[in-house]
Structure formats: C-alpha cells, structure tokens
Protein 1
Amino acid sequence: MKEYGYCRISTKKQSIERQIRNIKNIYPNSIIVTEAYTGTKINRPEWNKLLKRLAPGDTIVFDSVSRMSRNADEGIKVYFQLFENNINLIFLKEPYINTDIYKDNLKDKIELTGTDEDEIFKGLNNYFRKLAVKQIRIAFEQAQKEVDDLRQRTKEGIETARLNGKQIGQPKGTSLTTKKSITAKADIKKYSKDFDGSLKDVEVIRLAGISRKTYYKYKKQLANDF
C-alpha cells in the first residue's frame, strides 16, 4: 500500500512548497505528485495519472480539500468513488472528513438494546450517517465558495474601476510591448527581405521562433512605423 501526497496550485506563478512541506512533515514517505492546474476542473492531467496508479488500500494526502477540488459536485462524486474503491483520503486542514472518520461514522453510534427504544436509536444512527455526508458536502462547497467569491470580488473591482474612469486592460488600438516582441521585431527588420535583410518570410519565422500569425502582425506593425 502506497501513500501519495497530491499538491496543486492554480498557476505556475504560485508556490507549491508549503503544501509539500506540510504533507512531508506528517507523511515523510509519501510520494509527492504536483500539478499546476485550476481546481474548478476535476479532469486534470497529473490527477488523472495518479488515479490510474492507485490500488485498493492506497492513501492520498491533501493539504486541504480545495487542493482536491474547488467544484463541489465533482469533488463529492470523486470522494465517494475513491472511498468505494477502498482508497484512503486524508485532508490535513479538514481531518473531520478523512475517509477513516467517515467510515467510522457509518457504524452505529448507539447500540441497539432489543427494546422498543431501538426504533429511536436506529433513527439517531441514521441521522449521524447523514450528518457525516453533510459535513463532507459542506467542506467541498466551502472550497468552491472561496473561488466563487474571488471571482465576484474581481468582477466588482473591475466594475468599480470602470465607473471611476480608470482604464481596464489594454487601450483599444494599442499593442502590448514585451521583451519577446521587441526581439522578434528586431529580427524581422534585420533579416526580412522586405526590410533590411534577404530572407524569405518562412525563414524569418523559423529564426524568430514565432507563429505565422504573430509574424505577420509584427511585420504589419513595422511597415506602419515607416
């Protein structure tokens, strides 16, 4: 039986080290799987590879439930699929929804006595089982709510800036200047036969390492500058 630590960030600009450190501190022998992909989609390349490697009895450790999924419905569905396949799930920040805890909650909390009160006890045991499922759902819903709230705040911030007369995004009719675009334009001007060079378009495209669409866009911009 193997232990895996699944660490996910949304973009490569973010740091994943904290998640790795948190998991390794408690599960030093875990096999770390890292991924830079949005949590709103459960269909992720490295996650899918991990699922194919799993065998009954294996364990996946997450720093938090949001690392597994930020889509409540998909996250809950996968949680119970893995549970049914005897895969242990551990969430360091939400230990109350670990599969071991859920498995324990499926057992009767109140022993039956063989008396008339058993009907009440059965009802209570069933309630505790439903409560365990509800806790899992709430955890995934909270993870989704965090990203939904962020999107809403971003949308409201953009609208506030727009109403205050601030420019949102790149002004219409202007082009974004980057170090790569400056270098590519310099290559086009230097090597293209339409400017100072002697090379054909296809040769300059290969030399500059840009797409045909980008090449002709830059070429048009250079022509307009003359």
Protein 2
Amino acid sequence: MEAQNGVSANGDTMEHSGNDAASETRDDDRKIFIGGLSWETTEDNLKDFFSKHGEIENVNLKTDPNTGRSRGFAFVVFKAVDSVENVLNAGDLTIQNKKVEAKRAKARQGKVFVGGLPAELSEDEIKAHFGSFGKIAQMEMPFDKVRNQRKGFCFITFENESAMKELLRNPKQTLGGKEVDVKKATPRNDQMGFGGGPGFMRGGPRGAPRGGMMRGLLGAKK
C-alpha cells in the first residue's frame, strides 16, 4: 500500500506516535528561553527567581551529558500565558549577580503523514480540515506521474508542534466520509543500512566495492 511506503520529497517517513502525543500538553506559548546563566545556577534558583512572575509548571536547565555541568541556558514553562508577558516586560533580569537574557521560546514545527486519502478530495478540503488544528506551514501532495493522479497520502507541516500533538490525540480522522490514518513523520536516515525501503539506501554502504571489483576481491581471498 502507498500509505505504508510513503516518503516525502525531503525524505521523511511516517512513524506511529502511540499514546505519547496524548500525554503532551501545549506549552510553546507558555515557555521562555533563559540564556547567559551562571554555571552555578540551578533549577531551584530559577524556580525561586521566576515564581514571582507566575506559577511555574516546569524548569529545564540544560546540562552537558558527559559532565553534568550547566550549559548556561534553560527553559521555563509557566502555567499561564500572562506569566511569559510578565517576564518579557520586566526589563533587565539579574540572577546570581549575572545579567541574563529572556525571550519567548521558538516554537518547533510538527510534521505528520496522512494516509488513505480519498482521490476525490481537493487540496483545499484537506488543508481546511487539518488547518483547524493549527496554522499549516507546508503541504506535500505527492503525484503519481504514471497514473496521472495524486497519490493517496500527503505530508503536512504545522508551524507549531503543539498543533501536531493535538491532532495525534485522534490519529483516525474522517475526510470526505472516509477514515484516514495520521502518524508522526520522522526524517529518513539514508546512512542506516541496505535495501530500498524507507530509511535505507539502495546498494552497499558508501565506498564499498561493487560488481566485478567485489567478486575480484572475494576471489583473491580463496
């Protein structure tokens, strides 16, 4: 089936999201980035400092995976959107005698694979349906040149990852009276192995001898 072998123009494949998306919450609009932190600043220090601007849901201080030492920046998620505005309007921020930078965290995009699309559905109808979950940055509608028709799947990239997560709460969507499958799309890694399936490249690994050269090498070892 085409839906099982869907690959987008930039090499993305589809992946089951399971129940992970259902457990996620929208937090991009409640998240701020804090940079220029002192190496000694801890998550507790950040909680104490930013709690005066609003109730905090989560603090994520980024650390070096090898040393465990702070990398000098963190993300703070508040429980209310207004708290982010409070921080951004607070002027200069100083934590442990060090001036730090605070700005709205950049939202990550989210991409999904949609399989089993009815042929009679127009691109505008598909866009209207999925656009109700969030602003769409890009739609990829693969076309079958042999059959001269659109293929039965597409890829949709949302400007905000939270829209994708909201959509994946219900991976079975109904369009044009037909149920379609929605899965998270992930980049294909062309360096992982052999064969022609999604996520793999054809032939042997780069640099490996082929054809007569390979047979010659094998013969020399006999």
